[in-house]
Amino acid sequence: MHPALNPAAQNEQLSGIREFTYLVRATPGAIGFTIGEPDLNTPDEVKQAAKDALDANDTHYPPGNGYPSTLEAISAYEAREHGLHYSADEILLTVGATEALFVSFATILCDGDEVIIPTPAFGLYESLVRLNRGVPVALPTQNNHYQIDPAALERAITDKTKAIILTSPNNPTGCIYTKENLDAIHDVLKDKPIFVICDDVYRSLVYSGEYHSFSEYQDMRERIIIVQSFSKPYAMTGWRLGYLMADAPLRERLQVFHQYTVTSVPAFVQAACVKALDVDVSPVRALFKRRRDYMYGRLTEMGWSCQEPEGAFYIFVDISKWSMDSRAFAKKMLAEAGVGVIPGVFFGTEGYVRLSYCYSDAELREGLDRMEKFIKTL
Ligand code: PLP
């Protein structure tokens, strides 16, 4: 006699990316280009700030949305570095960008509301939309250089459309939306009652091209939610820290799900957030740019087809000429060449695999050498 569970929890698959990453880790001698986190450690001064806060007994319940001093520091950083003007009461400190995304969907979605997800996309979105009783609607971009076709966007919009999520730079492609494309998206959305969630967690890791975000379209401010993370630029994935920014009345409602699920982010880590905002990320950017150039150069020399990523730390490679689905291809390459990649199907796009370049020069070289030999056998 087992009482029925919530069907959303019962039916939702666990993350395919994680499952595949564990499979690669369990394969002896394998090199995995799987992980989406920097192979660096959190800067010492950031760790020290948390240690000092612990020693000063910053171990009590903090305010639900974050300490005012943390929110003020984020507000000043956003204005100074990114030209975004959100006051402390328009910011919510969250348990990673993941919680910011969960809270966003939980707050804006009613039963059966549709969320447009340009694909390929981070698989988390689809699951979060479904868990919050929404319906994910894929908007494929792979035949449009990963830009959004405004006419296709118009066609995807129905009277059930509640939101669209825009990720730039993108996971898994590393591509960014051009200003021209953002203008066109804005033209489609500006007079429609649709929220725009800007997942810009890779914004500080852009290597080429001029960067713009939809968050710049402040005429739509009351419908924009900006999602940020400390994970990627500061190598803080394990700290689980992020934040969202939204117009004051919307942010006021966004705190409801946050308060009733996590109460707040931990107290003593907030000093580390403030410290991180002062870290110069240009050496990290230079490191990943160098790796991007190496991996992209090697892949194209070998005849793999892929678009040059402009940011983040991923390359999305077209494998369709080998007529295998992405899962079968990734499993075969792991078994026969000892190189792990993530099947494109986990990003809603078959016929591709994602490679991460969060790895040392030696690992990149060895993994790519193995791949070069492997494709000659196909
Ligand atoms: N958004 C994107 C596009 C990501 O790639 C990731 C993590 O890989 C996240 C959000 C989640 O980040 P966090 O570690 O802050 O929860």
Supply the CATH architecture of the largest domain: 3-Layer(aba) Sandwich
Radius of gyration, in angstroms, nearest whole number = 21 Å
- Helix vs. strand class: alpha/beta
Largest sheet composition: 7 strands, mixed
Mean pLDDT: 96
Distinct helical segment count: 13
- The residue fraction in helices comes out at 25-40%
Classified by CATH, the class of the largest domain is Alpha Beta
Main sheet: strand order: 2-8-7-6-5-3-4
Bound molecules: pyridoxal-5'-phosphate
* Total number of strands: 13
Q: What's the quaternary structure here?
A: single chain
The end-to-end distance, rounded to whole angstroms, is 51 Å
- Weakly predicted, low-confidence segments: none
Strand content: 15-25%
General shape = globular
Total number of domains: 2
Query: N-to-C SSE series?
Result: HHEHHEHEHEHEHEEEHHHEEHEEEH
CATH topology of the largest domain: Aspartate Aminotransferase, domain 2
* CATH homology superfamily of the largest domain: Type I PLP-dependent aspartate aminotransferase-like (Major domain)
Please tell me about this protein's structure.
The protein is globular. Helix 3 runs antiparallel to helix 10 (270-276) and helix 5 (96-108) packs parallel to helix 6 (124-131). With 378 residues, it is α/β, with parallel strands linked by helices. The strands form three sheets. Strands 2-8-7-6-5-3-4 form a seven-stranded mixed sheet, with helices on both faces. It has a four-stranded antiparallel sheet with strand order 9-10-13-12. Strands 1-11 form a two-stranded parallel sheet. Helix content is 40%, strand content 15%. It binds pyridoxal-5'-phosphate. Pyridoxal-5'-phosphate binds next to helix 5.
